[in-house]
């Protein structure tokens, strides 16, 4: 992916709380108009990094640039950002219109300009009928729209979102996720979005930065992250259900574990050639094929079904393969039952190989 001119740049950023290293040597460029998602499990440093960009936390070392200006030690109000938090943080005694205009009034923006910005934000977020209501008369989704609108009226180039949908129920999250994507396509502002929800990350992002222990484990497009994970952590974190892993040995471009042998001659090795030795192979549940697709697989074998989970559109099957339990995603109409012997096929070219010791992609 070609990255446009950087809108936000982070250089050698460290953040320590006493002896605890929370962020370590981070470097990141966020392109103009890009939707970047910071993704990771709780405690990985994603919200902390966002707060550093916003100026809510003082960093230990490094520099932060926004629109080419060094803002490392500037106040949040001087950074040209709009931020949306996990909590709505609306003033309950004010109407929606009052909440949207409050910050602008404090900044002594002209009345006509305030009216224009509030009207534009309300139109974009489809909350015009709600302007005279107070937050107590709004649903969770409507309150979050108002919180987004409060950032929107600032008319800035960079928006920061800290898990804005996590307090909503599943359907509202889906609806607002669509609205956020539409909003970005309409405004074309730079947006940096923190979440632990991989579905949000995959559907919203131009690029995803997966974090662990204060470091970025991989930065890439959703397609790159999903289909070519750079290490086992990323491969395991992305995907629901997660990737199947089998331990084995790679020799002469063939992976073997127990009686299972997978030819890897056409595999796209990172270094251009196979490296023999102890290896882990990762296979996504949807890349284990059954039924009429068996003929396309590199290798076919039989497995015994241990458990079946009907999930509506899909059926998730647990089975034994080469001494390990694997998950197989099948069509929701599949009639497979616990105890069945199931013929399966594996397409080795869609698998991922990792060095067993370093856990990096081969």
Automatic annotation (TrEMBL):
<dbReference type="InterPro" id="IPR012340">
    <property type="entry name" value="NA-bd_OB-fold"/>
</dbReference>
<dbReference type="InterPro" id="IPR008995">
    <property type="entry name" value="Mo/tungstate-bd_C_term_dom"/>
</dbReference>
<keyword id="KW-0547">Nucleotide-binding</keyword>
<dbReference type="GO" id="GO:0016887">
    <property type="term" value="F:ATP hydrolysis activity"/>
</dbReference>
<dbReference type="InterPro" id="IPR047641">
    <property type="entry name" value="ABC_transpr_MalK/UgpC-like"/>
</dbReference>
<dbReference type="InterPro" id="IPR003439">
    <property type="entry name" value="ABC_transporter-like_ATP-bd"/>
</dbReference>
<dbReference type="Pfam" id="PF17912">
    <property type="entry name" value="OB_MalK"/>
</dbReference>
<dbReference type="Pfam" id="PF00005">
    <property type="entry name" value="ABC_tran"/>
</dbReference>
<dbReference type="GO" id="GO:0055052">
    <property type="term" value="C:ATP-binding cassette (ABC) transporter complex, substrate-binding subunit-containing"/>
</dbReference>
<protein>
    <submittedName>
        <fullName>ABC transporter ATP-binding protein</fullName>
    </submittedName>
</protein>
<feature type="domain" description="ABC transporter">
    <location>
        <begin position="8"/>
        <end position="238"/>
    </location>
</feature>
<dbReference type="InterPro" id="IPR040582">
    <property type="entry name" value="OB_MalK-like"/>
</dbReference>
<dbReference type="GO" id="GO:0005524">
    <property type="term" value="F:ATP binding"/>
</dbReference>
<dbReference type="GO" id="GO:1990060">
    <property type="term" value="C:maltose transport complex"/>
</dbReference>
<dbReference type="InterPro" id="IPR027417">
    <property type="entry name" value="P-loop_NTPase"/>
</dbReference>
<dbReference type="InterPro" id="IPR003593">
    <property type="entry name" value="AAA+_ATPase"/>
</dbReference>
<keyword id="KW-0472">Membrane</keyword>
<dbReference type="InterPro" id="IPR015855">
    <property type="entry name" value="ABC_transpr_MalK-like"/>
</dbReference>
<dbReference type="GO" id="GO:0015423">
    <property type="term" value="F:ABC-type maltose transporter activity"/>
</dbReference>
<keyword id="KW-0813">Transport</keyword>
<comment type="similarity">
    <text>Belongs to the ABC transporter superfamily.</text>
</comment>
<dbReference type="InterPro" id="IPR017871">
    <property type="entry name" value="ABC_transporter-like_CS"/>
</dbReference>
<keyword id="KW-0067">ATP-binding</keyword>
<keyword id="KW-1003">Cell membrane</keyword>
<keyword id="KW-0997">Cell inner membrane</keyword>
């Amino acid at each position: 992916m070609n990255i446009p001119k950087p809108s936000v740049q982070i250089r050698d950023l460290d953040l320590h709380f006493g002896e605890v290293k929370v962020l370590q040597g981070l470097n990141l460029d966020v392109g103009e108009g890009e939707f970047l998602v910071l993704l990771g499990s709780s405690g990985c440093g994603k919200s902390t990094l966002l707060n550093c960009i916003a100026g809510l936390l003082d960093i230990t070392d490094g520099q932060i640039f926004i629109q080419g200006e060094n803002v490392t030690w500037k106040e949040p109000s001087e950074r040209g950002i709009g931020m949306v938090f996990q909590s709505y943080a609306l003033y309950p005694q004010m109407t929606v219109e009052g909440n949207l205009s409050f910050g602008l009034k404090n900044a002594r923006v002209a009345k006509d300009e305030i009216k224009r910005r509030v009207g534009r934000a309300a139109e974009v977020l489809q909350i015009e009928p709600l302007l005279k209501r107070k937050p107590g008369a709004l649903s969770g989704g409507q309150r979050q729209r108002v919180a987004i609108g409060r950032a929107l009226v600032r008319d800035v180039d960079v928006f920061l979102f800290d898990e804005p949908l996590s307090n909503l129920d599943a359907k509202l999250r889906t609806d607002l996720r669509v609205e956020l994507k539409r909003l970005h396509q309409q405004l074309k502002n730079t947006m940096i979005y923190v979440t632990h929800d991989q579905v949000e990350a995959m559907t919203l992002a131009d690029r995803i930065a997966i974090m662990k222990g204060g470091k970025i484990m991989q930065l890439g497009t959703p397609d790159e992250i999903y289909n070519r994970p750079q290490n086992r952590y990323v491969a395991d974190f992305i995907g629901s259900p997660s990737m199947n892993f089998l331990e084995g040995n790679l020799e002469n471009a063939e992976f073997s574990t127990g009686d299972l042998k997978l030819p890897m001659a056409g595999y796209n090795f990172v270094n251009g050639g196979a490296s023999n030795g102890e290896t882990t192979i990762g296979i996504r549940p949807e890349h284990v094929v059954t039924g009429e697709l068996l003929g396309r697989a590199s290798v076919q074998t039989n497995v015994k079904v241990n458990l079946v989970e009907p999930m509506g559109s899909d059926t998730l099957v647990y089975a034994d393969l080469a001494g390990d339990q694997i998950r197989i995603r099948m069509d929701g109409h599949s009639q497979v039952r616990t105890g069945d012997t199931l013929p399966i096929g594996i397409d080795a070219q869609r698998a991922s190989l990792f060095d067993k010791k370093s856990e990096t992609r081969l």
